[in-house]
Amino acid sequence: MNKQELISIAKKVKKNIVEMIYEARSGHPGGSLSCADIITYLYYEKMNVNVEKPNDPNRDRFVLSKGHAAPALYAVLAEKGYFPKEELKKLRKLGSLLQGHPDSKHISGVDVSTGSLGQGISNTVGMALGLRNQKNNAKVYVVLGDGELQEGLVWEASMAAAHYKLDNIVAIIDNNGLQIDGKNEEVMGVEPLDKKFESFGWNVVCCDDGNDFDKIDEAFLRADKTEGKPTVIIAKTVKGSGVSFMENKAEWHGQAPNKEEKAKAIKDIMN
């Protein structure tokens, strides 16, 4: 798939993110938009998945460790055909298929239920070990938030991944620099991420624009060449990517747009 096709899909995904959060009157637009391009790339370009066989044991797995960004995953899954797009408008509503965080028991295409930060990458390590023990060549891709790295569980899992030489793991850090209370560096600094992961025994790939498909593709191609250790892609992203008044604004971490803001956001995205 070429870059323009990916951009077109990502615009639809971002539009759906805004619309579903508006309909729900709650959710997390900033961090969903920042990782939307990465998740689009994974499902449309990188991962070995088949919507007709969502439980194929040989499929690649995806874990959204930053589970509050579920709208990004839901929008991609719906666009891909895992469930009807009409479901997106029911986000967070009573009886809806789509809860505020991913639910693997009820949503086709969701491999792991996530929400408690740090647990997603821990699940990833277990899945990767299981696949290797079964001599299954599938990979596990996991997206984490940079604020999520403040959780100690992340580093326990990272230590285990390196110890067991799990080169079937590719972690992607959605490095947008912001969390619900403001800048990461002011809340609880997590830098330098590259040196920290290197010290834990990981292969580190730095991507200076995680919202550009050429840069994303380049990073994953570098990750593919690694053997004998897990890889982390530290992707510099923009919180609220594609929406002018949301970009780089911490207040849009967990705030739904009103009707006028929704219209402005969609106009920004589709232009």
From TrEMBL:
It comes from Clostridium vincentii. One of its GO terms (molecular function) is transketolase activity. PANTHER family: TRANSKETOLASE N-TERMINAL SECTION-RELATED. Pfam families: Transketolase_N. Residues 12-267 form the Transketolase N-terminal domain. InterPro entries: THDP-binding (IPR029061), Transketolase_N (IPR005474). Gene3D superfamilies: 3.40.50.970. The lineage of its organism: Bacteria, Bacillati, Bacillota, Clostridia, Eubacteriales. Belongs to the transketolase family. This is Transketolase 2. Its cofactor is thiamine diphosphate. It comes from the Bacteria. Keywords: Thiamine pyrophosphate, Transferase. Its EC number is 2.2.1.1. SUPFAM superfamilies: Thiamin diphosphate-binding fold (THDP-binding) (SSF52518).
